[in-house]
Amino acid sequence: MINKIRFYSKLGYKLIKKEVISRDDYKEEYDKVSETYHYWLKEMGRYTDNIIHSKHIEVDKELKILDFACGTGYITKGLLNKSTEYKITSVDQSDKMLEKLLDRDNPRVTASQSDGIEFLKTTNERYDVIFFGWALSYFNHNELLKLFNSVLKPGGILGIITNVEGTLDKIESIFLNVMSEKQEEVIKPMDIKFNLPKGKKGLVRWCSKYGFKALEVEEGEVFFSFKEPEELLQWLNITGAAAGTRKIFKNYHEVKPLIIEKIKKEKYKNGVYEINHKFAYGIFRKE
Ligand SMILES: C[S@@+](CC[C@H](N)C(=O)[O-])C[C@H]1O[C@@H](n2cnc3c(N)ncnc32)[C@H](O)[C@@H]1O
């Protein structure tokens, strides 16, 4: 008990001092994930299509579009296929993710390797549309939505798809328990809790605070099951779903057996190991 109290006060102290997984850590993590991110796209890209193909985004009009935290460019490529009229700026901080953006030589695409916040603060460009896929947890949403508002033209459109609270059920507590039991291995915690909205209602609340009106909004949940706990952990790592967690520890391989033991205990259901991805997406207009 005393050990737990000591652990949580140490954790709280690190969070206050902002000794947490940093932008550089996420960059390194996504540089690695770039080789396997297609596994995520194969299963989850179909949900991103809902915002790419929204009826609220005109097809036959020349639009300046920002694909923010574009990764390997799933949204960029979808937009290039959707219309020949779009001019797209694709920004990501991971050069390795950007390298996979095959259409970066396309004259209609400007690829930029940059921290997203720095980009938004320094760009003189004003956009008709911003797309933002699966990266909200890496940003402070208050800072980000304010900046989105400032780089969008009046009446501009914001398309978001994001994980929401309740996604990856029990994974956070599994990692916290491992950290508590292997305190000597912990370098720094992650700080993403405040950056996931509570479902589609939460997403609307966050966006409306910064001047965005919801035109359409939906939510969903999908489940993946695996025969072995090791496979579930591998899925979290290769897709980027648990990006950052490997950086918590001095030696990830030292703590991996304990993570697997906990997955075995917590995630077993009906003969398989199951993980959920809970998400919301929407199209918003700057009022
Ligand atoms: C889950 S991927 C999403 C990629 C893409 N939007 C998609 O829908 O497939 C998250 C992306 O956010 C990027 N990212 C995380 N933090 C960032 C930051 N501070 N600035 C720019 N990109 C960032 C990562 O490098 C990664 O490519």
UniProtKB/TrEMBL annotation:
Transmembrane segments: none annotated. Keywords: Methyltransferase, Transferase. Residues 65-156 form the Methyltransferase domain. GO terms for biological process: methylation. Signal peptide: none annotated. InterPro entries: Methyltransf_25. It comes from the Bacteria. GO terms for molecular function: methyltransferase activity. PANTHER family: TRANS-ACONITATE 2-METHYLTRANSFERASE (PTHR43861:SF1), TRANS-ACONITATE 2-METHYLTRANSFERASE-RELATED (PTHR43861). This is Class I SAM-dependent methyltransferase. It comes from Clostridium mobile.
